[in-house]
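In this section we walk through a basic example: taking a raw amino acid sequence and producing a predicted 3D structure, encoded as C-alpha cells. The instruction is simple. Fold the sequence below.
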Amino acid sequence: MPPPGFSTIAFDGPETINGKPAIYLTFDDGPEPGSTNLVLDALAKTNTPATFSTIGSIISDTAASKALVKREIAQGSTVGAHGWMHLDMSKWTRAADREALTKVKNEIEKVTGLAPTCSRPPYGSYSGNLSWETSHLGMRIQRWTGDTEDWARPDPDAIMKTITKSWKPGYVILLHDGGNHGAVTAQVVPRIVAEAKKRGYVIGNNLCPMTTDLNLTTAPLPPTSS
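The resulting C-alpha cell sequence is shown next.
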C-alpha cells in the first residue's frame, strides 16, 4: 500500500499562490493537432499555463503529436497521464492498470525528459487497484472540481456559465483539447483569463509539477497554498 500520509487522489488545487486566490485549467484527451494547437494558441496569447492529461497511444502515433507535447512544456504548461488509450480502467486488474500507466508514463518521459506526477483516469473513474498502481508509479490521481462538459459542444456562453457557477479558490476546471473540441474550448480560454483577473485570481501552473526524477515509487503530496 502507499505510505501513510501520501495522498493518491485530489480534486481541488492549492487555494492560493503568493497570497492570491488561484484556479487551474486542465485539458484532457489530447494531443490532437487541430484542437490542441488552437488551445495552445489561446493559452500563448494570454500567457496562461495549464495541465494537459494526455493519451499515450496518441503521443506515440505521430511526430506531430510528440511536437505538441513538447510545445505544451515549452509554453510553461505541465503534462500528465490520461491512460494509454481512452478506456475505463476502474474495473481492470492491478496488472492491467500497471501496464497501461507504465506505457503512458514512459511515453511522456521519452518525449519530454520529465516524469509526470499526476494521472487523470479516463472518465474520472478509479478503483483501489488503480489508485495503488498510480501511486506506486510516482503519480497521484488528479480529478477536477468542475466539469464544463465542453465535450458536448455547448456554446462558449454556456461553458462560461458552468464555470462561473462553481468558481472558488483551488477550482480545477475540466476542459478538453482532444476529440475535436478545441475550436469552441479555445474561445473560452481568454474569457476565463479575463474573469480571473476581474476577480483578483491567478491561474496556477503548480497543480501537477513534473520532475526529473524518473524513478519515483510513491505518490507526491498535492502542492500546498503559498
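Looking at the output, two observations stand out. Residues 1-7 have pLDDT under 50 and may be disordered. The chain has one domain: 9-203. In the next section we compare this with other chains.
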